[in-house]
Amino acid sequence: MFKRKRILLILSLLIVILVVIVSFPEKRKQIKTGHFTFKFSPGIDTSKIHELASSLENNYARIGNDLKTRPSNDIQVNLYAQRWRYVKATGNWSASGNIEGISKLHFVEQAWGETDSKKVAIHEFAHTVTLKLLIDNETQPLDSKAFDKKFATLPTWLWEAISVYEADQFIDPKMLPFFSNGSYPNI
Hints:
Layout: H1 2-23, E1 29-32, E2 36-40, H2 46-66, E3 75-80, H3 83-90, E4 97-99, E5 104-108, H4 117-136, H5 144-151, H6 156-166, H7 177-180
Parallel strand pairs: 2-3, 3-5
Antiparallel strand pairs: 1-2, 4-5
């Protein structure tokens, strides 16, 4: 009985310590470039941030030209070393990156299914430019709820396809298991 109470006490203490650590705010570093402000976990190598900055700056005008709109001038890029920090900041468990409007993006350093974080950054940036294009082409002013309702009617596959294309994240269909083993998806 005493052993069981001791184990429960130790587990309780570990849970309390974990909750305190998770709740503790992270002191973030910052680097500013021509069009981007990077806020990132201190555990991330600064040289990696400079590579991401260079990649985003090199794609800034290209993606804007491709989508025939001008991206926002100062875009905040939030990069997280730990997935739980990303989830805490965004509330998003199911993805490795997401955007908040036309000038703020978030992503995890080690994204699921992608080894090149530059492609993840470009993918999320392309989402901000696509959203800005939609807003720029609104013929009448919409409040945020009306815009969100209209946006929800747009096909997710198109929204994602634009970002996958712009980030050069093409995957040859021959490499997908259901094509290589002959079990094709239903339409």
